[in-house]
Amino acid sequence: MVINRKEKSASRDFGNLVHHLPRAVFHPRSPQDIASLVKTSYESPAPFTISVKGQGHSTRGQAMARGGVVVDMRALREENNSNKKKNIRVIWREEGYYGDVGGEALWADVLREAAEMGVAPASWTDYLYLTVGGTLSNGGISGQSFKYGPQISIVHEMDVITGKGELVTCSSHTNSELFHAVLGGLGQFGIITRARIALHPAPKMVKWVRLLYNDFSAFTKDQERLISINGRKHNNNDNNDDDVALDYVEGMLLMHQGPINNWRSSFFPLADHPRIISLVTQHSILYCLELAKYYDEKSENNVDKEMQGLLEGLSYMPGFYYEKKVSYVEFLNRVRSGELKLQSQRQWDVPHPWLNLFIPKSQIMDFDSGVFKNIIFKRNITTGPVLIYPMNRSK
Question: For residue 320, what pLDDT band results from cuts at 50, 70 and 90?
Answer without folding.
Answer: very high
